[in-house]
Write a structure and sequence with these properties.
It is found in: Nucleus. Keywords: Nucleus, Transcription, Transcription regulation. This is Velvet domain-containing protein. InterPro entries: Velvet, Velvet_dom, Velvet_dom_sf. The protein is mainly β. The protein has 2 helices and 16 strands. Strands 2, 4, 6, 10, 11 and 12 form a 6-stranded mixed sheet that branches. Strands 1-3-8-7 form a 4-stranded antiparallel sheet, with helices on one face. Strands 13-14-15-16 form a 4-stranded mixed sheet, with no helix packed on it. A hairpin with a 4-residue loop joins strand 15 and strand 16. The longest helix has 8 residues. The protein is globular and about 105 Å long.
């Protein structure tokens, strides 16, 4: 038999009448500083505004007790982020083509009931995945709304500080995550955390590359003399030839920058009456 599961929100008080008595206080706890311009395609490389904008939210309702914080459980509050010019009050919703939105990602945030850095309960709106498609200087207009029944009421708005959107070539890189961002991430909020400063990778000097590269040891074949060449370093001693590693038709030559040590091929293996194993003659011995 199927079971029906229902979810119940906390009981909150909403008002349609005399809403002008309610005071909403918005504080931008984390201002946007920079961003990298993203592409228009669905698979375009997208970097969010850094650091992610965070707005603290408080409600003062004279009809409720002074220390009442039931609004922190209200699921009907949300905040919308729109782009504004740095020196004008108009909102920039579309690009010049009149079709593509100027922002992409999550432009709406729900109300999050989180612990502040002083371990007190507070309400926050967070935008960890908001990107801009145009290069230049901008601001964010952050507007608070409340859904009451079938109506949506605008409560309050706040404008952020100016931030700059760079092209891909000029972007200096993402900064280290703030303590506030890390604190929210520890509480389960989905927000990107960077423990170290990430700067744009620059071209490495050729000398540095040469120092970092380790010399490669490889074997090459001289087809004209049928010799195998194994380059070695000056400070190493050539290995002693071993009958098991010798080829009857080749001689092994070890090269150093100043001289060469040549080991001739071993003689044919002959079986003597007095010896039951192959005899090897060194270069200094005579047959």
């Amino acid at each position: 038999m199927d079971e029906t599961v229902s979810y119940h929100f906390a009981t909150v008080r909403q008002r349609r009448e005399n809403r002008n008595e309610i005071k909403y206080h918005l504080t931008i706890r984390q201002q946007p500083k920079q961003s990298r311009m993203c592409g228009i395609g669905e698979k375009a490389d997208r970097r969010p505004i850094d650091p992610p904008p965070i707005v603290q939210f408080q409600v003062m309702d004279p009809s409720l007790p002074p220390n009442d914080k039931t609004y922190l459980q209200n699921p009907y509050y949300f905040m919308y982020a729109s782009l504004m010019a740095a020196d004008l009050d108009e909102e920039l919703h579309l690009l010049r083509d009149g079709k593509t939105r100027s922002t992409t990602g999550s432009v709406v945030s729900s109300l999050y009931h989180l612990k502040d850095i002083d371990n007190t309960d507070a309400g926050f709106f967070v935008f960890p995945d908001l990107s801009v498609r145009m290069e230049g200087s901008y601001r964010l207009k952050l507007s608070l709304f409340e859904i009451v029944g079938k109506e949506v009421f605008h409560c309050e708005s706040i404008i952020s500080n100016q931030f700059f959107v760079y092209s891909a070539k000029k972007f200096p890189g993402m900064e280290e995550s703030t303590f506030l961002s890390r604190s929210f991430a520890d509480q389960g909020l989905k927000i990107r955390i960077r423990k170290e400063l990430r700067q744009r990778r620059k071209l490495v000097d050729n000398n540095t590359n040469e120092k970092e590269k380790r010399p490669r040891v490889s074997a090459s074949v001289d087809k004209s003399h049928h010799h195998l060449y194994y380059p070695i370093r000056e400070d190493t001693t050539p290995p002693t030839p071993s009958s098991s590693s010798y080829n009857m038709q080749h001689s092994i030559q070890f090269h150093t920058p100043n001289h060469s040590i040549i080991y001739p091929p071993p003689p044919s293996h002959e079986r003597n009456d007095s010896m039951s194993f192959s005899t090897f003659h060194s270069p200094s011995q005579k047959k």
